[in-house]
Design a protein that fits this description.
This protein is α/β, with parallel strands linked by helices. Helix content is 33%, strand content 26%. The protein contains 11 helices and 16 strands. The strands form 4 sheets. Strands 1-2-4-3-5-16-6-15 form an 8-stranded mixed sheet, sandwiched between helices. Strand 3, helix 3 and strand 4 form a beta-alpha-beta unit. InterPro entries: Amidohydrolase, Bact_exopeptidase_dim_dom, Peptidase_M20, Peptidase_M20_dimer.
């Protein structure tokens, strides 16, 4: 197995801590992008900045036939709008922002692989390193695609990776097919006629149909969708314009729906609209339904999953690779890239103990530096195998 350049793990740790101390969110990742671009240029890669606003793309060509084949590797760069509660030296120095999902680690591992491959890589072809902003809002991947990502860098395969708390540190986990759910946002506004709480007979209370609808939505999972399909329909907010002694005129329900295929998403949306229309009509209220598809299903292609599996086994051996990890109900805009180019997304265990087991998006979370080496080795093995 390939050995990393002496001192590279320590360098990755330094880069990771630097990004962790100075987290940036959304598309506003200018300092992070500048750090990434400067390192890539230092190693002699062809660097393109400002793709999809603040995305960075680096190209590495090697061998006598560099145009023989092109593959892409992607890491996300943005942080979260969360106040960090950790006390270690590399904690966030920016109030209200932290790397609570490990994108600092993802970027550091891909930087490590770029350094390794630039200096010692043994392959014939072209690697495209994608450093993507604004994954958390699901906007960055599409922004880079719309900015000509795959027209300018026509990769035939794309690969991604995310750390996974609760999974033993350094274990690689993957599966063919759906590995992460789609996410759709739901908003239902029920309009009645409000008034004084002492005279309910003179108003048309929208709270009554709203409560019926909250209950009715739960039947989508239990009575509409095939039991073999995993579906989540959650009402997460109930908002009114009423007060203690005022029956409201409007109730707004907000929620979140997740599925593992587009057909089920279509089925869920149809049923939500049918329930909302029927219940609203029964209570003589008006209803408006907004169903916004925010994230697609992250779907691993068979051929690229086989490639990722081979690389994972080469790095970890069979005892530290899970080949049929259960799909996760969270979402990722890497799915946008996969809708253009076939690819595979894998998980890398962040740890199951106090060191790496804290859940993502928690103010006490931190990426586990002990897995940086495994991530960089996986990327390196994948490139040298595929090219």
């Amino acid at each position: 197995m390939t050995q990393l350049i002496d001192g590279l793990v320590e360098q990755m740790t330094t880069w990771r801590h630097q990004m962790h101390r100075l987290p940036e969110t959304g598309f506003d990742v200018h300092m992070t992008a500048q750090l990434i671009a400067s390192l890539l240029k230092e190693w002699g890669l062809e660097v393109h900045e400002g793709i999809g606003q603040t995305g960075v793309v680096a190209v590495l060509r090697k061998g006598d036939r560099p145009d023989r084949k092109m593959i892409a590797l992607r890491a996300d760069t943005d942080a979260l709008p969360i106040t960090e509660l950790n006390t270690f030296d590399h904690r966030s120095s920016v109030d209200g922002k932290m790397h609570g999902c490990g994108h600092d680690g993802h970027s550091a591992m891909l930087l490590g692989a770029a350094c390794q491959l630039a200096k010692r890589g043994e392959f014939e072809g072209t690697v495209v390193f994608i450093f993507q902003p604004n994954e958390e809002h699901g906007l960055g991947a599409q922004a880079m695609i719309d900015d000509g990502l795959f027209e300018r860098f026509p990769a035939t395969e794309v690969y991604g990776m995310h750390n996974l708390p609760g999974l033993e540190a350094g274990v690689l986990a993957l599966r063919a097919g759906a590995i992460m759910a789609s996410e759709s946002l739901l908003e239902i506004q029920i309009n009645g006629c409000g008034g004084h709480a002492s005279s309910p007979h003179l108003v048309n209370d929208p709270i009554i149909p709203a409560t019926h609808l909250v209950q009715g939505l739960q039947t989508i999972v239990s009575r509409t969708v095939d039991p073999s399909e995993a579906v989540v329909v959650s009402v997460t907010e109930v908002l009114t314009d009423g007060a203690r002694n005022v029956i409201p005129s409007t109730v707004t329900l907000k929620g979140d729906c997740r599925t593992f295929n587009d057909a089920t998403t279509d089925q869920v949306e149809r049923r939500i609209r049918t329930l909302a229309a029927g219940i609203s009509e029964a209570f003589d209220t008006l209803v408006e339904v907004t169903f916004s598809r925010e994230f697609f299903v992250t779907h691993n292609a068979e051929a690229q999953t086989q490639a990722a599996q081979c690389a994972a086994l080469k790095v970890n051996g069979p005892e530290r690779v899970l080949l049929d990890v259960p799909p996760k109900s969270f979402s990722e805009d890497f799915a946008c890239l996969q809708r253009v180019v076939p690819g595979c997304y894998v998980f890398l265990g962040n740890g199951a103990d106090s060191r790496g087991g804290c859940m993502l998006h928690n103010p006490h979370y931190d990426f586990n530096d002990n897995i940086l080496e495994t991530g960089a080795l996986y990327w390196t093995a994948l490139v040298e195998q595929q090219l």
